[in-house]
Specification:
- The radius of gyration is 19 Å and the shape is elongated.
- Helices cover about 30% and strands about 0% of the residues.
- It has about 90 residues and is mainly α.
- It has 4 helices and no strands.
- The chain starts with about 30 loop residues before the first helix and ends in a 9-residue tail after the last helix.
Length: about 90
């Protein structure tokens, strides 16, 4: 019977590079926090387009690097911009 793996083992031993400090992923900073933007504006469509995929889906925090607070504001702003016909629901 093979030894059971502990939940804390994570990605160690799976060939994903060296374990320890060298394996840490570089943390992306939130653009809105860096620029000290409190509220995401739904009328700024050029900025909102950066957070939408080619198919029109809202990109995840993991991809965008936005913090939790600003990612929620982004989602609401994108949905408002779509409702006002400033952004498309899908790109066709």
């Amino acid at each position: 019977m093979p030894p059971t793996r502990d939940k804390r083992d994570g990605a160690r031993g799976r060939g994903r590079g060296p374990a320890g400090a060298a394996a840490q992923i570089r943390r992306r900073n939130c653009y809105f926090c860096r620029e000290k933007i409190d509220e995401v504006d739904y009328k700024n469509t050029a900025q909102l387009r950066r957070y939408i995929s080619e198919k029109g889906k809202i990109r995840s925090r993991r991809i965008t690097g936005a913090c939790r607070r600003h990612q929620r504001q982004l989602a609401v702003a994108i949905k408002r911009a779509r409702e006002m016909a400033l952004l498309p629901y899908v790109s066709g």
